[in-house]
Design a protein that fits this description.
Number of domains: 2
Strand order of the largest sheet: 4-5-9-10-11-13
Distance between the termini: 21 Å
Mean pLDDT: 87
Strand content: 25-35%
Structural class: alpha+beta
Number of strands: 13
Oligomer: single chain
Radius of gyration: 24 Å
Length: 236
């Protein structure tokens, strides 16, 4: 693994302490950690001092120093989950313009406004995942999710981004950018294998049938076999 550290200019660091993590013992799968100040030995070499229990305030200060800090944000109603690395939100059913390759069987449908199901988006570490909803209401943790029946999205909901101009971060301010990047990119291919829709014509047949329609047929959606809670945890 290659790691690069940029300090922004001349800077000198001094070893101050170390965190030791212990696992095993009589606890099944248990673990604990302790902090040790670094002391100078007789020969000048550093050595670890006595163990000190870790406090919540110390860990908070450490995480802030390492940059693991979420900026304060006002969360709109469509945000479902927010962590330092992950954002999950939902979008009610809507109509969006979609683009397909001119040489695909959906080429004649490219550029038309088509009805979309309610969707759940997850952006984490530059990766986008999408699921569909059969009900056009804000989902709860136990809501069963459905496969998003799109080109470029596999059965697990992972989006093949290709040349998609995705945002650099996963923040509330970037939600519209993620959605725009997804819908305004070209839908080019079936990504992986699996059962994407109940429609007899498959994904292509589904979207061809929606030309001129205003409402997405939710009965064509296929269960994904996971709840919103499981979907949110799966992208961590």
């Amino acid at each position: 693994m290659e790691c690069t550290l940029y300090l922004g200019g001349p800077c000198q660091f001094e070893l101050r302490g170390a965190i030791l993590v212990y696992a095993g013992g009589t606890m099944s799968g248990g673990a604990f950690a302790s902090w040790h100040d670094v002391e100078s030995g007789k020969a000048g070499a550093p050595r670890l001092g006595p163990a000190t229990p870790l406090s919540t305030s110390f860990l908070r200060e450490l995480s802030q120093g390492l940059g693991a800090m979420t900026r304060p944000e006002i969360l709109p109603d469509n945000v479902l989950v927010r962590t330092p690395d992950t954002l999950v939100w939902w979008r009610p059913a809507q109509r969006r313009k979609m683009f397909f390759r001119h040489d695909d069987e959906l080429g004649t449908t490219s550029g038309r406004v088509l009805p979309q199901p309610a969707l759940v988006f997850q952006a984490s570490h530059g990766v986008l995942r999408i699921r569909a909803l059969v009900s056009n209401i804000r989902p709860s943790s136990v809501t069963a999710l459905h496969v998003a029946p799109y080109y470029n999205v596999n059965i697990e909901g992972l989006v093949c981004q290709g040349t998609m101009r995705a945002p650099d971060e996963s923040t509330v301010a970037s939600m519209a950018q993620w959605e725009q990047a997804f819908f305004e990119s070209e839908f080019t291919h079936i990504y992986g294998s699996g059962h994407f829709t109940r429609h007899a014509g498959g994904v292509a047949g589904l979207w061809k049938s929606l030309a001129g329609k205003r409402v997405f047929p939710n009965h064509e959606l296929v269960p994904a076999g996971e709840t919103l809670s499981e979907f949110a945890e799966g992208g961590q």
